[in-house]
């Protein structure tokens, strides 16, 4: 009964130009051998399953969406999640898909459309108005992207926080070892990436309490040292704000003015999501690293969330690779505590060692991961780099103006 509408909806979504852009890297993996099924996983998935947990740490209700691109999904594509609540789902150990948050939704009683009968059902992340998303949603939305069994003969797990399709909510990823013994001892500070780009949600830098409590003083998650709530309040290029606050002087002057208060939840569209142009999305003749240059949105998103993917060619600097396919999974936390993480730059070598999977090295990796000196040094290095470019501290209005104008020229 439910099967036919699902197929139709998939066809409809394929023609939707505002749908999320996939991580380029993921497209290279073999997915033919693991056709997408909505799930939940059963014996036919070889009994090999992975945990997929979703937690809402925000102060208001969210409606998470789950998209399955390969393997067997959790059997549900979206649901309502009250503040402070979490759900434990399972997917197949070779699942590829994404999780995002929808905000301020209002569905009809059957969950088949908006309560008022027309338009989207959610302010952000909407998936064709339905509660139980079928394939994907609309940008802007912060995405958690996972391929539990991607490269190297399906033995590696790839994941990232993607801002390529814009940003709507703070998001953290916590690796759950599941039944995979290879992951049981992997330090959380190597794996648990966080992106917090909503003003008021960033905590002061601290070696504990990070990412939903998954980091602590013995394994502090490397943090982004510069972007406090004052900077975060104005990171999104003005033209990409979903809700544009009223500007004084009929919007003619001053333009743009970062002293104008923006709403706390104001989704930021990426250049790609806004223009959908080959130039901004690195597609077509621009699907070449040498031709596609990061736009101002990419620069800004990299600053507030160094571990997130803000530009389609960010693969190296923002995709996490750990041993995969063995039953390890993830928790996606909306509005995690703490600070944006800076893991990839701090622990590049350790992460490489981890994927080369020499168990003998795990001891060393663990030691480095718990080494506060390394984490502090990385934070200092980052502050120095920013200072030498004159970007430290609260961006004065001159700095902000330069940033926005440069964005207009580039885009
Ligand atoms: C720190 O985190 C690790 C890994 O999650 C955990 O095993 C350990 O008990 C924690 N230590 C403290 C002091 O909470
Ligand atoms: C790094 O991971 C180790 C191993 O679980 C953990 O004990 C440590 O607390 C982590 N560091 C941070 C900063 O989370
Ligand atoms: C939901 O809507 C209310 C009222 O307009 C607003 O205050 C709140 O910030 C919105 N929440 C999100 C997450 O957008
Ligand atoms: C931590 O790292 C620093 C810098 O690499 C090193 O000098 C120090 O010996 C390390 N400390 C421990 C306890 O491993």
Bound molecules: 2-acetamido-2-deoxy-beta-D-glucopyranose
Beta content: 15-25%
- The CATH class: Mainly Beta
Into which percent range does the helicity of residues fall? 10-25%
Low-confidence stretches: 1-17, 385-411
Instruction: Based on Cα principal axes, name the global outline.
Output: globular
Gap from first CA to last CA: 47 Å
Indicate the CATH topology. Answer: Thaumatin
CATH homologous superfamily descriptor = Thaumatin
Q: How many strand elements?
A: 11
Instruction: Outline the biggest β-sheet.
Output: 6 strands, mixed
Question: Can you walk through the features of this model?
Answer:
The structure is a single chain. This protein has 13 helices and eleven strands. The relative contact order is 0.15. It is an alpha+beta fold. It has helices at residues 3-14, 151-154, 188-191, 229-232, 271-275, 278-281, 296-304, 315-318, 343-346, 348-356, 362-369, 372-388, 397-410, and strands at residues 49-56, 62-70, 86-92, 96-103, 143-147, 156-162, 171-176, 194-195, 308-309, 320-323, 329-334. The strands form two sheets. Strands 2, 4, 5, 6, 9 and 10 form a six-stranded mixed sheet that branches. A five-stranded mixed sheet has the order 3-1-11-7-8, with no helix packed on it. It has one domain (6-383): Thaumatin. Residues 1-17 and 385-411 have low confidence and may be disordered. It is globular. It is 24% helix and 16% strand. Residues 188, 216, 218-219 line the site of one 2-acetamido-2-deoxy-beta-D-glucopyranose. Residues 31-50 are annotated as: Disordered. InterPro entries: Osmotin/thaumatin-like_sf (IPR037176), Thaumatin (IPR001938).
């Amino acid at each position: 009964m439910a099967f036919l509408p699902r197929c139709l909806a998939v066809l409809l979504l394929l023609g939707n130009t505002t749908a999320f852009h996939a991580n380029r890297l993921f497209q290279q993996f073999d997915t033919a051998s693991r056709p997408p099924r909505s799930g939940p996983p059963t014996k036919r998935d070889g009994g090999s399953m992975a945990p997929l947990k979703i937690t809402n740490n925000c102060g208001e209700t969210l409606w998470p969406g789950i998209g399955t691109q390969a393997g067997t999904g959790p059997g549900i594509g979206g649901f309502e999640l009250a503040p402070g609540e979490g759900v434990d789902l399972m997917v197949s150990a070779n699942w590829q898909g994404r999780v995002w948050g929808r905000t301020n939704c209002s569905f009809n009683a059957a969950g088949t459309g908006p309560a008022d009968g027309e338009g989207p059902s959610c302010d952000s992340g909407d998936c064709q108005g339905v509660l139980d998303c079928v394939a994907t949603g609309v940008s802007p939305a912060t995405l958690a992207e996972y391929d539990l069994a991607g490269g190297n003969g399906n033995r590696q797990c790839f994941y990232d926080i993607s801002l390529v399709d814009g940003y709507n909510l703070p998001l953290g990823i916590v690796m759950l070892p599941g039944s995979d013994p290879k992951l049981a001892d992997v330090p959380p500070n190597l794996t648990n990436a966080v992106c917090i780009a909503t003003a008021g949600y960033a905590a002061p830098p601290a070696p504990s309490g990070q990412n939903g409590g998954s980091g602590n003083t013995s394994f502090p998650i490397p943090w982004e040292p510069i972007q406090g709530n004052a900077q975060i309040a104005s990171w999104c290029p003005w033209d990409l704000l979903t809700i544009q606050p009223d500007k004084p002087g009929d919007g003619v002057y001053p333009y743009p003015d970062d002293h104008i208060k923006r709403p706390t939840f104001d989704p930021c569209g990426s250049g790609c999501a806004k223009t959908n142009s080959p130039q901004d999305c690195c597609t077509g003749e621009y699907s070449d690293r040498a031709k596609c240059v990061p736009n101002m949105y990419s620069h800004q998103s990299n600053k507030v969330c160094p571990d997130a993917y803000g530009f389609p060619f960010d693969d190296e600097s923002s995709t996490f690779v750990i041993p995969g396919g063995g039953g390890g999974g993830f928790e996606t936390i909306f509005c995690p505590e703490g600070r944006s993480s800076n893991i990839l730059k701090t622990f590049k070598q350790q992460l490489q060692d981890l994927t080369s999977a020499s168990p003998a090295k795990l001891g060393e990796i663990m030691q480095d991961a718990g080494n506060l000196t390394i984490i502090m040094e990385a934070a200092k290095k980052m502050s120095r780099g920013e200072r030498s470019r004159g970007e430290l501290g609260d961006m004065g209005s001159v700095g902000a103006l330069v940033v926005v104008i440069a964005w207009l020229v580039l885009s």
